[in-house]
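Lecture 7 notes. Example A: sequence first, then its structure tokens.
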Amino acid sequence: MAKKQTAGRDNLGEFAPKFAELNDDVLYGEVWSREDKLSARDRSMITCAALMSQGLFPQLESHMKLAKQNGVTKDEMVEIITHLAFYAGWPKAWSAFGLAKKIYADD
């Protein structure tokens, strides 16, 4: 079951309330919660792959943490990054490994 998301309201609620609402209620409340269609674990792997491919490392860091919470193991994250290195770029893989080492340090 997807955890209720409040990051939009917590970070942008007063500054950009509509964006915060769309983030929390639509993206996470409606899309991420459709676990009968695609598990949160699978959504996390897909999201991390997309963010790494685009070089969006601040967002990748938070989604990598979420991926770990959603059951993506260190070995799986290493394999995702290694695989993507050939499609998204070697420097992006190096950057993603830096995040993964930090996030999965206790594994």
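Example B, a different protein, same format:
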Amino acid sequence: MRVIESPGRPPGRRPGRPPGRPRPVADLLALARPAHAAKSLLIVPIALADAGVVTAGALGRLAWAAGAFVLAGAAVYVGNDIADRHRDRHHPVKRDRPVASGRVPVRAAALYCLALLGLLGVVLCAGPDRPYWPVLAYLALNLAYSRVLKHLPLVDVGAVALGFALRVLQGCLVAGDRISGWLMVAVFSMALVLVIGKRRQELLDSGPAHRPALRGYSVELANQLLQLTCVLAAVAGLIYLRSEAPLGPYGQAAMLLCTPPALFALFRYLKAVLVDGRGGDPVRGLLGDRGIAAAGVAIAVVLGAATLLARHPALVPAITP
């Protein structure tokens, strides 16, 4: 959802001098972007859809993987805010972030980032005996993104989307050894949809002064890329349900029943971006949209029922005439 400045804010206030008393604890918490933890808490468990058997051990390992990515993501956000503090001051919303506004000194933010990385190291060492290279690859990717990739048009959106795919890949590795190609394509392309929608809104809000890579974009290009990636996300997701999802004989029925709510969710998102101008914050936009939430619940119900019937065939005679 696009965040709009309050009309009551004094027009002459300079960034870094907010009214009221300092709130160091709240600023440090905001620096880690707790709302964005939903990216890991919701995306890592997608691996459950591809797991043949769900056990208590697998659920525990998925919780560990989600927690590790929450810490990794928080450290990345803090590091990015330090690196981008000068450019963020040109953005109508990001200029009020703790580091860009000056409420949190750079030295304190750097120590905070190191503390988060240290805690992540403890979590990885104490975690299950499973590969955790996707977490390390995520950190390396974001380091490269902060230094180089974020300045390369088109490459920048691909790097961000790859971070989402790495979350699901980590979930697959801890839940089991099965990794579906179509599931990874669907997650990657859906992440591209969200990132491109955000870039489009940034073009309208602040332009390349805040993000130099935006010089390689236009609103028309963003519109075309949104169409392409939406089609790819829908097709990949439906092919996954039909061919690779562990739904047994109910894969085709699940694909057919999920098509209307999946398309409706995409339509709602495109309306939010292209008509309502709410593509600036994809996390709040998705979680706060009732239509998308209802579509998500419908898809979850269909997939849950199909999974239950596929794993417990004895239930079929009890619910069919």
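Note on Example B: The chain has two domains: 25-177, 180-313. The longest helix spans residues 56-83.
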